[in-house]
Amino acid sequence: MTLAADTREAVRRHPFLFDALRADVVNYSAAARFLDADGEPDAVVAALRRFADDLPEYERPGSDPPVNMQSGLGEGDPADALLVVGDRSLVSDAGSLTAITAGGDADAAALQQVLGRLETAEVPVEAAAFGGGSLVVVVGRRDGPDAVRAVEDALAG
């Protein structure tokens, strides 16, 4: 593989760096050091710049969709579930978890943005999913208000 191909592959292993390149908020020298790619640092920087030039511009997902909070989720019958992840079915009025839902045009990019924002807000996520233009994240009851603010912030247009 060429140095350019190696650099692109290394960036794709780190989605945060991929997004930072798209958003044009990267210190290329620091990124080259972080990637620890084989090759001269100046050549890696040049490969990063060329790669960034070929990427589509970064766009924040969503356009301020309505965000709602539903408390009291817990394990239950999959037929009644708000969210099913693996063997875990979360239903209303069955526990102490809180679901944060957002409508609009939620997709994988929106969920990624939400999960990243929740991580920086130090809100642990119990489960998460998206589909049909909506997304849901499940957190502990006490984390609900912080999670709503974080989700609203993440999806603000």
Q: What is the string of SSEs from the N terminus onward? A: HHHHEEEEHEEH
Oligomer: single chain
Number of strands: 6
Distance between the termini: 39 Å
Query: Number of helical segments?
Result: 6
Write the layout of secondary structure elements.
Layout: H1 3-12, H2 15-23, H3 28-35, H4 41-54, E1 67-75, E2 83-85, E3 88-91, E4 97-106, H5 108-120, E5 125-131, E6 133-140, H6 144-155
Antiparallel strand pairs: 1-3, 1-4, 2-3, 4-6, 5-6
Helix pairs in contact: 1-4, 3-4, 5-6
Keywords:
157 residues; 6 strands; 6 helices; alpha+beta; single chain; 42% helix
Q: How is this structure best summarized?
A:
With 157 residues, the chain is of the alpha+beta class.
Explain what this protein looks like in three dimensions.
It is elongated, with a radius of gyration of 19 Å. Helices cover 42% and strands 26% of the residues. α3 crosses α4 and α5 crosses α6. The mean pLDDT is 90. The longest helix is centred in the N-terminal third of the chain and has 14 residues. The chain is built from 6 helices and 6 strands, in the order ααααββββαββα. It is α+β, with helices and mostly antiparallel strands.
